[in-house]
Amino acid sequence: KDMTYPPLLRKIEYAPPVLYVCGNLTDDDRRFSLGIVGTRKMTPYGHRVTEYFASHLAKGKVTVVSGLALGVDTVAHTAALDAGGRTIAVLASGLDTIYPPSNYTLARRIVESGQGALLSSFPLGIRPETGNFPARNHVISGLSLGVLVTEAPPRSGALITAGSALNQGREVFAVPAGIFSPASGGVNKLIQDGAHPVTDVNDILESLNLYMLPQQSEAQTLLPANDEERILLGLLSSEPQHIDELIRLSELPAN
After folding, report:
1. Contact 141/161 with Cβ under 8 angstroms?
2. Which of 67, 170, 171, 227 is deepest in the core (most CB within 10 A)?
3. What is the SS3 assignment for 45?
């Protein structure tokens, strides 16, 4: 047995006998990882939710695991890196084939930054065939203490990852969204079926008994630099506003 093989993955049924890794895996990666998955076709809400959870988990020293796909996966990896944290990208191909090709730069950043690794259960030369993705999802959940689905329609591949997590005895978390949003039908159904609804990163940390991790993060306060910023910050909220409305309310010049 190779002692560098992730212990969480070792415990699951049908664990891959061989892993191929480009980059570095740390002891914390092996103990404190969380999968973040979701739709390739994000709404602005899904982008914001994914960025929020990935960045705050990364600041709390939780490694973000995802599949390097477009949409939620890309935002999760990028937000973790931008926050100074760690991320693992699990591929559905050999490490010599980055899919989608548009994420080659992101894959390279994960490795060259020293903040994570590319990982695959497939040897070099294997292309990203359709049948490889369920196996990729099986590894994402197997590497993780739990899986967070941030945004997913009813037929999303992210739900396969959530199903793998349940079969492996891992926790499944889902971010609730509007009942009329087609992009969130899958996550809302997960909550109906028993997934943990989460609206704050501490919901996840407490569920996984990772209370101490947020204490390792530095608190950041947003302070206005001048009177104009102070006025505008006072008018901003969690909901989008049209710039014309901000101009009217702030009584500031348009420029």
Report:
1. yes
2. 67
3. helix
φ/ψ (deg, to 5) at 171: -75, 145
Q: What are phi and psi of 175, to 5 degrees?
A: -95, 115
> What are 242's two structure tokens?
């049209």
User: Does 134 sit behind a cis peptide bond, omega within 30 degrees of 0 on the bond before it?
Assistant: no
Backbone angles phi, psi at 49, to 5 degrees: -65, -45
pTM for this entry: 0.82
| 106: its two tokens | 């992101």
The Cβ of residue 215 has, within 10 Å, a number of other Cβ atoms equal to 8
Amino acid at 52: Y
Strands (E), the chain: 20-23, 33-37, 63-66, 87-91, 116-120, 146-149, 171-174, 196-197
Q: What is the pLDDT of residues 140-153, one digit of tens each?
A: 999 999 999 999 99
- Using alpha carbons, select from 206, 188, 196 the residue that is nearest to residue 147: 196
* pLDDT at 80 (0 to 100): 97
Is 114 a residue whose pLDDT tops 80?
yes
Q: Write the pLDDT tens digit of every residue in 18-38.
A: 999 999 999 999 889 999 999
Mean pLDDT of 161-174: 91
Please tell me the predicted confidence (pLDDT) of residue 219.
38
Q: Which residues contact 6 (CB under 8 A, 6 or more apart)?
A: 19, 25, 29, 30, 33, 142, 143
User: Mapping DSSP to helix (H, G, I), strand (E, B) and coil, where does residue 19 land?
Assistant: coil
How many Cα atoms are found within 13 Å in the side-chain-facing hemisphere of 29? 22
**Which tokens go with 31?**
């103990």
Query: What pLDDT was estimated at residue 215?
Result: 45
